Amino acid sequence: MISLATAPLAVAAARAGGGEVPQPAPAFARIVLEGDSITSTTPCQADNHDGFYSHTWTDEHPSLVTFVSAQGSRVVGGAGYNGDLADNSTNALAAKVAQDLAHDPDLLTVKIGVNDLSSTGCKVPTYLQRLRDWAAQIRGAGVKIAYASPTPIETGSEVDQAESDYYMAKWNALWTTHDIRNPAVWGQWADYYIPLGEHPFFRQTTGWTSEGIHPSGPVNNPAKGQFYLKASFDAAMATLLDPSRVNAAGPYQSVWNAFGPFTDLAPGVPITRRVTLAGLAWAGHAGGVSVSGGDAAVQTNGKIAPGWAYNGDTVDLTFTPSASYAADASIQLTIGGETRTLTYRTAANVAPAAYQHGDIVGVPEGDSALTLTGLTFAEGIAVVVIRASDTAPATAVKLNGVNLTRRRREAAQYTGGIEIWDGPVAAGSNHTLAVTYPAWTSNRVVSYGTITGGSFVTATGNAPMYAGEPHLFPAVTVPANGIAVAAFLEYGGASIAPGSFYPGTTPTDAGRTVHNSETLGIALGTRPVSGQASVNFAFGSYPRVIAVYAAG
Fold this sequence. Notes:
Elements: H1 7-16, E1 30-35, H2 53-59, E2 65-68, H3 97-101, E3 107-111, H4 114-118, H5 124-140, E4 144-148, H6 161-175, H7 183-186, E5 192-194, H8 201-204, H9 225-240, H10 253-259, E6 262-265, E7 271-276, E8 289-292, E9 297-300, E10 314-319, E11 328-335, E12 338-346, E13 354-363, E14 369-377, E15 380-388, E16 396-399, E17 402-403, E18 405-412, E19 416-425, E20 428-436, E21 444-452, E22 454-462, E23 471-472, E24 483-493, E25 500-501, E26 506-515, E27 518-527, E28 534-536, E29 544-551
Helix pairs in contact: 2-9
């Protein structure tokens, strides 16, 4: 039988030799989330749940019994080692063993170390030995431990350069001198490893923390650090809650799909794919991540060859497809113990689709019918975006008496609904557009234009409630030489600033109308590349839609 303390290492050794040791898959139904103020300000705090990966995750899993026990300023604590004095703080993991075990958990996750490594009284070997001492008590009670590595820090309002340098020297030593990605190391105090502190976002960007230490929230904002902690934690925990993956050699199919294969790529234009791993064996896989073929290259957590692959790792793949049209180029990608050949095909030599804008018209409140005459369209697909009621969609949209097709509708209370319609149109400057609403409607706004040289692919949208900027659209895949049209429904006071699109989406127009001192308008933009459109606009609830068109 494999003992609890050595199970990850024994399983890893068996895989490395080509065999596989069956490992029973426990069912985790009661989970304690431990850590410091990066995990939670206070245990089971009642507010600011969207500011922490831990509380957001527990809110999303109501079927589990979960306890966020983390506390600000928490350390591992324990005996003195390596010339360091004992740390008998009451706010230490060592002092909370009985309290955590009282919840009768099956699994305890712990992200700890920033306060320990910041202290001049705690050398790295002391930190690691205290983890071993603490974990022996938790694991001795039959509880599994998932250890999450500490995050880096940067200079800020609470951290000067000397403090940052001191901490980062210790932090870097965790992966170099002390090799904590190796299960022979972390397996001494944990059963599973979650690479929260290794996300490349923390080392490749700035601004993810407001004061140098704490990754900021909210978790749904990709400019903030808690967003990336949540992404890594989600991937690791989803796998730990899936008994079918306990000894899996490779990741989920969705991970492979994110890497490819892809078609309709721009010839000779490098592509980059950033993917979070999930679905690997619970204790990770010695095979790591590697690639061959062409100029393909991979990095795991911003490093070229960090060794093992773990659920929650961030993998960046770069590759340049063929410089010729309609040509294939292949790579061999290895993730853990599985290798697949992925083929990337460039687009045929066709003229790109384009969007030719007409106008955005704001019309005061009125009865059910709205008619606009003398409109100019090019030859192609007429694209019409309208503001409608939040409770009742438009009855019909007709161009020259012919029905257009509604591609997507999203709605939010107070703001209203936004709908995108399209249909074929001939070039001309005397077109008539008629919009029929089910009843009297306030603040009617209509945008119109033409997709030239394209065909409809798909449309999507969303309507988040009470969100701050950046207001994100759902991610879309835009084919090579294609284009996406994004529309955002604005709402606010008479003087509110219009919405503006972030880089990656080209702003086209913004039009609005005012009724009873309230502004409603549409901000329109286009994207020639895949990804997420995003808008800078005031806090609130704003629906948005985006339609994708392929060339040809």
